[in-house]
């Protein structure tokens, strides 16, 4: 019964979306206030209906209703409650329902917080948002319905893929979707602005919080996925340049670019058409990510529900929306006249450089991801493009970005003097060179990777601090730091976070130590400065798995510093083993222990890794997300939201 | 479709084994380091975008042993890779060659970068020489409004 209600609510939501996609658009064109006003309640109703539908599906999973096909395929009565809930989106149909839920949520948020938008722009934004919604409702109802029943319900389910039964991965998809789908609002704003034929500072100000929000969620989602890979897959890799990872990384790069170019639109009324193009492309890449994951076009560890029919449908959605928006862009972009005038050396130019580097980096990932397909179709060559290519082709642009960032962030608007900024940054630069030099001399081997990464990390963090300190001027009144706008703090924190991530990646890749051996019980062995000893191995029973759990003592200078329990689990229902690495997390390094199979001659296969700076990768991501939150809570956004009734419909002048 | 099913079956059967096993490791650390380096550039054929060094599949193990066998025979790194490419095709290379149309793959990023730099430079030059809109004069509406304000 509840399931049928959910199904019904989903169909109703699709019909509401149809109304919302048509009526406000006509209203905005004809300037009929009544028709435009339909958008707001429709967006709310659409969201509530999808919410009911999603709740109904969650109910089926939580109560293990095995008359539902989807629950049978992806759940089991013995599964812990957390994974019963995360099982809702741990499959194709359910994740699409989550996708439209978030799409409707963003539409509703735009309706609730969009009170200060001009009525025609608001009606059009919500209309475009609903058009995207209609396409995805049709996709779900026609090709991937989650509410299908079984003719004969079985006694129990087939369990969720054990790799997905993990707290990190339980929340990875929702965050990722919040980011992906959040970009749909930027897309709707861009298309609405093209239809209106008007992009001004106010538009930049409206788009920016949405971009920040999506970028922040994407950052968290990608970081969670990468952290999961690190501890779950058993050798501590954190990024594989897999097509599906790339599919989430490309929108992240473009969202980062959009975030910065929207600042130029807001403050200086320049880069308008480029910003619109970025907004369209960012969402286009999100759609392409969906297409790659679900079509099975590119082989990937993540691909699920690889079904050509679904792939073609999503390709249709992708081509319609991106193609339609780009056509509109080609017709209307000429109308966007830049107003701001700025010198060759200025913050504006620095942000142009930022956009060039991020967009080119995204393009490199794009070409590398699709090249195997191109090569096979056009030249008949079956080839692979993997991590070594991306490391070589992508990294230089990130290094350039890191080098320029602290300088660009401190240049003043309109006309700047590089000399002055460089003088201020000299201590940061000196410190960065000193750190790099120190590690160059003490490291074994002569790899550049580690020192360069630490140079960039120090340079970015010290640069961010210099930027903040420069804001208090010569007064030495440090209490002024606390009174700086939160956006300034957000900028500094996010930029420092990028530096910490860069340092972490370089440190881990350059100085990781590894030991693979057959470990005998109670026979200590050494790696680096540490001594390891396998104390015992036990068979343990979990809720829905059996585990082989080792007990490992880690000692440094004779003193025990950690007791680790690496596991190898077998999930009998899903018939899959997983490795659960045991990790001793410390500030400067992780110790990472994995247990393998018993050997016929006695002993167990063991892998032990020392991973320097590993945590920094995710700590940096968290800092970037915190920077986003700080910027998002900046006074001008809060004031703009609070003063929506007072604000004139014409928008706010720049500066 | 068949291919992915096949690959899936392989992954399911083969995950029981693990990446590099202790019995595979060569006695000579220098040789072993070279073997690891080569393995990281070779794709596991039955897996999805994994190199043979990280892969658990049994075919990856066979390839790892083959790499070590070639190195013990005295092959250089390039000879070892060529030996495997001859037998399994260029699909095993995670770092594609620059031969044929692949130059386009490698050059795509730098080419776009140069193009974007030029476009950006032209745009910035244009902006730095453009007349500020305020100097371009006021619209009729604004003039009327300004006069009204001045009169008040």
Automatic annotation (TrEMBL), chain B:
InterPro entries: C-type_cytochrome_biogenesis (IPR051263), CcmH/CycL/Ccl2/NrfF_N (IPR005616), CcmH/CycL/NrfF/Ccl2_sf (IPR038297). The keyword NAD does not apply. GO terms for cellular component: plasma membrane. The keyword Iron applies. Keywords: Cytochrome c-type biogenesis, Heme, Iron, Membrane, Metal-binding, Signal, Transmembrane, Transmembrane helix. Residues 1-19 form the signal peptide. GO terms for molecular function: metal ion binding. GO terms for biological process: cytochrome complex assembly. Residues 8-150 form the CcmH/CycL/Ccl2/NrfF N-terminal domain. The chain crosses the membrane at residues 103-124. Possible subunit of a heme lyase. Belongs to the CcmH/CycL/Ccl2/NrfF family. This is Cytochrome c-type biogenesis protein.
């Amino acid at each position: 019964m509840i399931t049928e209600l959910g199904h019904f609510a989903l169909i109703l939501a699709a019909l509401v979306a149809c109304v919302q996609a048509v009526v406000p658009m006509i209203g905005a064109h004809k300037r009929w206030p009544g028709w435009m006003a339909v958008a707001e309640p429709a967006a709310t109703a659409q969201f509530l209906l999808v919410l009911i539908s999603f709740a109904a599906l969650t109910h089926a999973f939580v109560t293990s209703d095995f008359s539902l096909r989807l629950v049978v395929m992806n759940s089991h009565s013995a599964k812990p409650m957390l994974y019963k809930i995360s099982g809702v989106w741990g499959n194709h149909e359910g994740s699409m329902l989550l996708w439209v839920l978030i799409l409707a949520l963003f539409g509703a948020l735009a309706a609730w917080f969009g009170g200060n938008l001009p009525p025609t722009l608001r009606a059009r934004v919500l209309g475009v948002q609903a058009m995207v919604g209609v396409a995805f409702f049709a996709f779900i109802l026609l090709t991937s319905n989650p509410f299908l029943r079984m003719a004969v319900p079985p006694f129990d389910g087939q369990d969720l893929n054990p790799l997905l039964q993990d707290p990190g991965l339980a929340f990875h998809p929702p965050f990722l979707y919040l980011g992906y789908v959040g970009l749909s609002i930027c897309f709707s704003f861009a298309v609405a602005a093209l239809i209106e034929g008007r992009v001004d500072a106010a538009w930049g100000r409206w788009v920016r919080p949405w971009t920040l929000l999506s970028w922040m969620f994407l950052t968290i989602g990608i970081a969670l996925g990468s952290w999961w890979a690190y501890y779950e897959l058993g050798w501590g890799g954190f990024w594989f340049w897999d097509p599906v990872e790339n599919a989430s990384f490309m929108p992240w790069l473009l969202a980062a670019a959009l975030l910065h170019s929207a600042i130029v639109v807001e403050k200086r009324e320049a880069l308008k058409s480029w910003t619109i193009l970025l907004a369209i492309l960012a969402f286009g890449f999100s759609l392409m990510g969906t297409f790659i994951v679900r079509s099975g076009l590119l082989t990937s560890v993540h691909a699920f529900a690889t079904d050509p029919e679904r792939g073609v449908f999503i390709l249709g959605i992708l081509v319609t929306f991106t193609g339609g928006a780009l056509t509109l862009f080609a017709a209307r972009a000429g109308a966007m006249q830049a107003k701001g005038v700025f010198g060759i050396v200025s913050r504006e130019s620095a942000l142009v450089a930022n956009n060039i580097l991020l967009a080119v980096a995204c393009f490199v990932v794009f070409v590398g991801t699709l090249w195997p397909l191109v090569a096979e179709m056009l030249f008949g060559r079956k080839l692979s493009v993997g991590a070594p290519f991306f490391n070589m082709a992508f990294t230089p642009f990130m290094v350039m970005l890191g080098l320029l960032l602290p300088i660009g962030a401190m240049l003043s608007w309109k006309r700047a003097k590089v000399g002055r900024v460089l003088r201020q940054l000299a201590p940061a630069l000196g410190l960065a060179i000193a750190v790099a030099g120190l590690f160059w001399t003490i490291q074994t081997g002569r790899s550049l990777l580690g020192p360069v990464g630490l140079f960039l990390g120090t340079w970015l963090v010290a640069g961010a601090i210099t930027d903040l300190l420069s804001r208090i001027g010569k007064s030495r009144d440090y209490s002024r730091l606390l009174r700086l706008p939160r956006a300034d703090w957000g900028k500094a924190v996010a930029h420092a976070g990028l530096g910490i991530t860069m340092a972490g990646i370089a440190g881990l890749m350059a100085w990781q130590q590894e030991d693979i051996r057959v470990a005998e019980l109670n026979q200590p062995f050494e790696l680096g400065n540490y001594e390891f000893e396998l104390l015992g191995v036990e068979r343990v029973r979990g809720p829905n798995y059996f585990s082989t759990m080792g007990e490992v003592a880690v000692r440094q200078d004779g003193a025990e510093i950690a007791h680790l329990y690496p596991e190898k689990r077998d999930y009998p229902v899903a018939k899959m083993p997983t490795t659960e690495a045991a990790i001793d997390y410390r500030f400067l390094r992780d110790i990472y222990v994995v247990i393998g199979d018993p050997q016929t001659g006695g002993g167990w296969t063991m892998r032990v890794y020392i991973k320097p700076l590993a945590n920094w990768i995710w700590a940096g991501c968290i800092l970037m997300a915190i920077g986003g939150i700080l910027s998002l809570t900046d006074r001008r956004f809060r004031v703009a939201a609070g003063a929506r009734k007072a604000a004139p419909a014409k928008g706010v002048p720049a500066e | 479709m068949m291919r992915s099913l096949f690959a899936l079956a392989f992954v399911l059967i083969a995950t029981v084994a693990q990446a590099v096993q202790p019995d595979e490791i060569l006695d000579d650390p220098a040789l072993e380091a070279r073997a690891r380096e080569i393995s990281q550039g070779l794709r596991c054929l039955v897996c999805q975008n994994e190199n043979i060094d990280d892969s658990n599949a049994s075919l990856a193990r066979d390839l790892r042993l083959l790499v070590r066998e070639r190195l013990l025979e005295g092959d250089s790194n390039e000879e070892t890779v060529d030996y495997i490419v001859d037998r399994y095709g260029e699909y095993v290379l995670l770092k594609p060659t620059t031969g044929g149309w692949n130059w386009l793959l490698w050059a795509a990023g730098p080419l776009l970068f140069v193009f974007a730099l030029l476009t950006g430079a032209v745009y910035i030059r244009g902006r730095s020489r453009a007349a500020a809109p305020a100097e371009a004069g006021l619209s009729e509406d604004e003039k009327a409004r300004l006069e009204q304000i001045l009169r008040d």
